[in-house]
Amino acid sequence: MATIMKFWKRKKAGNLGPGDSSVLNGHDEDARTVLCNVPDHGAFSFPGNRTSTRKYSWWSFVPAALFVQYRRAAYWYFTAMAGLSLAPFAPYSPISVWLPLIFVLVLGLLREAWEDLRRAKGDRELNNRDIEVHDGNGEFVVKKWKVLRVGDLVRVKDGDYFPSDLLLVSSSGPDGICYVETMNLDGETNLKVRQALQVTWEIDGKEEVKLREFKAELLCEGPNASLYTFSGRLKINEVELPVGPPQLLLRDSSLQNTGSILGVVVYTGHDTKSMQNATAPPNKRSRVDRSLDRVIWLMFFLLIGMAIATCVIIGIRTNVDGLNVWYLRPTESNAYYNPNNIAIVCIVGFFNGLVLYGYLIPIALYVSLEIVRVAQALFMVADEQMYDSVSDKRARVKSPGLNEELGQVDTIFSDKTGTLTSNQMDFFRCTIAGISYGEGTTEVERAAVRLGMPMGLSSRDLRPERQSDSRTMSARAETLDANALGPNNNPYKEKGFNFYDERLMGGKWIEERNSEAIKFFFEVLALCHTAIPEGTAEDPFMMRYRAESPDEAALVVAAKQFGFYFYKKTPTTLHIRESLGPDVPPRDQVYQLLDVLEFSSLRKRMSVIVRFPDGRLLLLSKGADSVIFQRVDRNSSGPVTETSKHLRQFGEVGLRTLVVAYKQLDENEYQSWRVRYAEARAIIGKERELRTEELAEEMEQDLTVVGGTGVEDKLQQGVPEAVDRLARAGINIWVLTGDKVETAINIGYACSLLRKGMDKLIVSLEVPEARSIEERAAREEWLPDKIFEGQKKFVSQKLKEALDLVLGGHENPRGTSTSERKISFSESFRSALSRSIGRNNASALSRNSSRSMSNIDEVLALNLSNPRDRHSRIPSGGQKGLELLSFHVDGTRSGSDVEGLSQKVTPITKDNQLSRSQHEPSAEPSEYALIIDGQSLAYVLAEESLQELFLEVCINCSSVLCCRVSPRQKAQVTTLVRKGLGQHRLCLAIGDGANDVGMIQAANVGVGILGVEGAQAAMAADFAIGQFRFLERLLLVHGRWCYRRIALLILYFFYKVCIMGWISLYSNIFAYFSGNPLYNDWYASFYNTVFTVLPVVIIGIIDQDVTPADAFRYPQLYRSGQRGELFNRRSFFYWLVLSVYQSAVIFFFPLVVFSGLSAFRPNGQVAAAQDFGAAMFTGLVIVPNLQVYSAFHYFTWIHHAAIWASILSWYLFIIIYGAIPVSWATIAYKEFVEVLAPSGGYWLLQPLVVVAALLPDLMLRSAKWVYAPLDYQIVIEQDKRGSPHRAQASNLVP
């Protein structure tokens, strides 16, 4: 295939004419020439438009699907054992070994076939969609998508999807404009504007002559995966014109709000940009699966050891006893047991042992795991508590193989906007000409009131210094909200606008002394954007704006509220209806839109060049203060100082800020720039993007600041509670955001990520100490390398000081070390439940609870008597309903100051650290939060030594905020931490936008939010939910259950197959290592697949130890999964030892009873070997099934039915199988009916075996439950005794 593709590329390159070689300029060796309205039908030129997402073809399905199955090493082992069963010396018949293997493989093939058929069905529906294609004679005929060729001229109607990547020729809309929705490509729901070149507008599809005569030649770049770039030149009527992204319509996007368009097919099939982006998600395996691989290898080596022992022993005994073992027919004719050929005897014994003990590695385990994981996923999807009624979306599970990972998460990486916040932006405050406007309290300010921290209640008054205490603040906040007009009582409020200031509202801004500056400010907001209006000009209230982001739409809505109503847009004009007062009639103004310099995450700004009605030529710009302030005109900068101060205040109260600026343009300079900009846009290849960016940078200099905006992005419902519980569950939470440091810190307070009394360690290159480096570099004219080294040294110094501070005499707040957690889970849990009672009482509680469960009432009374327990993850407190969560905030500690939200944070210094260390150590370990900005993070990511230092600081902090980070840095940080923490720590990333995809895919588990920014994050994620608050239920309830269920399933599976393996070893010992089994081989074949499989599957699907309410009330229970306490060497070896003991009971008790010491049959005959085997196998079925009761913690009729139906299946099988002809049933012929059932000894044997096998384990578990209970057992006991807090806790389930 690769050779064919290379040939195609050479052929396509050959299609270029001799004069076209210079066009490539070395930028794109795969550039192609498209003859418009002349379809290409060459056999080896461009591929067709048929697409396929299938993994297999009809001829490759079986080998390719089997290859997928055999990626598991265990399948090779099963196949090898099945091959050995074909040997004449094999202990089991081949069919009894091959049938289970074939069954498992067929199930896998059927699953692959089902999935592939579903993909094929989707492909078939897509390829057979109808599209109107020009037939070359002025008429359009209906064809299928799959027959389209490059060069075809097609017509697409409103609401339809584009069949391939098209060059827009004309549109039924004005001026060649059409609107496109690209949600399937980038997840964005806003409409994009596309416009055809003016030279092709008149080709509208109505005049046959124009259709027939339309001919053009397009030279463009080759196929690539970049959705946002396209470069080419269209040669028509001997004129060459540049084309770019505004002229390209991408496959999988749809036409909206436009009657129809005509387009030329440029890329087809798998050459389209959507198919070029269709990459497979990263292959993620759960930690349990990796541990399972190690267990499989352990069992394999154990099996090899047992087979070698069999080989050696049978060789020695054959050599010693020789011909005395007459029943083995040790003659020359029997080559397998010839005493004269010991080597052959040993080899046969070895392979015989492999087959006989082969059940130590269970093939049914893999099938059971897949069934259980799919069922768990269905339960997650059906969970009504994770249904988002607002968006009408349920949870989605795309990677069921990672279910148990949800119960072991150690670190969460979260985006802020749209993930923690609702992504519903409201214009809240602004600063114009150095004056701040806007009243009301933000969520961050209300959080400050709750926490008793000094924080002003508005931008105009109620500043921190005027507040005497938290009570005064709270009372004034309530008075303000109840009696004054503002965000909570605002008659002007609408979606996107929650601003109130009596100086500006109702047209009063005209009376302000700086009314001209205010007018210009809102003019800029109404013009500087790429929004598309949807609605009628006569109904402003119903007008909606399709914008690239919700905050941009909020700014346009704000301009409308202040009398600058944007109601119409064309490719070259912006229509604004100005209302300058209640007594002045509105007038329509038309502004000429000349150029748009679009926003990007790298540029962090966008600009438009507009000619005003009065003839002024202005560049209007808005963007982040960090980039706008760098580009201001030093001679005419505007109110930079005041604006910077106000934006900092806006950020402190959690608002998203932008700077608004402008530049007066000279006509001649602009025309010169525009020519160069047009030439840059005509370049084909990657150079085009670089060149246009350089010219945009050139234009966006010498700006004058007009003002700034503050937009509030409210927290999602339940975010503070969810963050609090996740933190108390021992999960380290990181927030990676593009916001400035002040905004991120205060949003952190609002959502409980940061808490009162927590020490903030800030590493930033924007503090005065860091800026002094830049100032010195400017004075001394440092080289870039020296500046780099100086700033890197500064970052390194701050990280070292932070590390000294967090380790200087304080415990690790998470109870962890850089290698592994050392603290006992039970100790930390009891400490979390009882720490606020006092050190003496807590110690007594720990001693009492570990001594005996007889005083459980006292233990639980102590645990529940004080609902404000503290934990190392100190929650925020104060929110309604959170009293039930058992937390309290004590803001005082020895040697630390309480920092308010608006206080300036002192940078980390050695003096600070030294002064702290001189105080007496606090009773509680200090909590720390690291805040680091993107510039500092860039140095960390570039230096390995800084990465190690950074990780060590982060591990010892309760929270981490990374501010001003790019999407690339998000992914890099996630990868760094995931690799740095190793396999023992598990990272989860959650986000809602396309900029979070890299972070989501880099984490062990990715969770997408089905939010406003589209579905791209959800499509790339392993799990998807509608709101962030559902994450706590996904982890604390479903994740914990899934981990526990999968761990028990695997351990129980190995336990029951080990019993069978040990019994096979015992029987082989008594059979002189001849390999002859004591029971029918079909017994063994159905043991794992029928007789014992149902109870363990029920465990994996519906078993639960604590209720969801208890999981929320005691989130510390989650830590068992973080430490891997349920699936580790200790638990595995316990079940292994238990299997050894129970296998001995199951084997030797019947051996004693049936050893010939007494008659077994009514006629006085002793038991035969097959009688002993069948009686023993009954115990082999009953004991493991009843052992399941020790794993259940609550019972339903399903549990009982599964256990007793499994036992009953054994009796039904032995009766039915024994009734078939003896040639088939062999030694099982009428075994139960004629031999076992009439024997009283058989019926007395079974309860004896069951009691002897299960009693020791039951006694041990009971003793541990009473004298050394685990934490979940304490909670279970609490529920059994009817705790009065249980009803309250049940209300916490979201």
UniProtKB/TrEMBL annotation:
Transmembrane segments: 97-114, 295-316, 342-367, 1046-1070, 1082-1102, 1132-1160, 1172-1189, 1201-1220, 1240-1260
Chain residues that bind Mg(2+): D415, T417, D992, D996
An annotated GO BP: phospholipid translocation
Sequence segments annotated as region (Disordered): 894-922
Gene3D superfamilies in the cross-refs: Calcium-transporting ATPase, cytoplasmic domain N, Calcium-transporting ATPase, cytoplasmic transduction domain A, HAD superfamily/HAD-like
Compositional bias annotation for Polar residues: 903-916
Residue ranges constituting the P-type ATPase N-terminal domain according to the UniProt record: 36-97
Record domain P-type ATPase C-terminal: where: 1018-1269
Assigned EC number: 7.6.2.1
Active site residues per record: D415
Protein name: Phospholipid-transporting ATPase
The organism of origin for this protein: Physcomitrium patens (Spreading-leaved earth moss)
